[in-house]
User: What shape does this take?
Amino acid sequence: MPAQRPTTELDARYSSALNPRPGAPEVTATQWAEAQRRLEAAEIFWVSTVRPDGRLHVTPCIAAWHDGVLYFSTGRGEQKAKNLAHDAHCALTTGTNSLTDGFDLVVEGTAEPVGDRARLEEVITAFETKYGPHITSPEGTFHGLGDEFRSGDAVVLAVAPGTAYGFGRDNGVYSHTRWTF
Assistant: This one.
């Protein structure tokens, strides 16, 4: 199901509001529309899953934000597919690796396989639109991904956010926003 309009909260414990710096009095929560814009634009995500023995597994992936849901894929025999078959809870993370500037996002939710053919075609279009020649060109890194989705060789997973977090850094002014769905 698509994400609903969340409640938005600035968590002052982890924001510059409690650790004053120049610009800190103006720190506010990031609006969900801005977070969605960033999810749509992000090219690389990190998906975190839990192995059956409780150990974490983190791996990079590509993902597409479509109709309030974050979609990614995995091969049927890959570790993340095995982990999600055991425990469907996961987190997808994207952002920057700078200490003083940037914005990081974490989306927590439950991964559900996409079985509906019409929805699958929408997701394929979302991936092709977002990643362009990386998917559509024969020389592309992920060429043929849509065919793998259609054939079932790759499992397409939908994660509607349960909770999401935004960690902003603007020239050393920090904000921490929590969105609850």
In short: Strands lie at 7-10, 45-50, 56-61, 63-66, 69-75, 89-94, 101-113, 154-170, 173-180. The chain has a mean pLDDT of 92. The chain is about 25% helix and 40% strand. The longest helix spans residues 117-131.
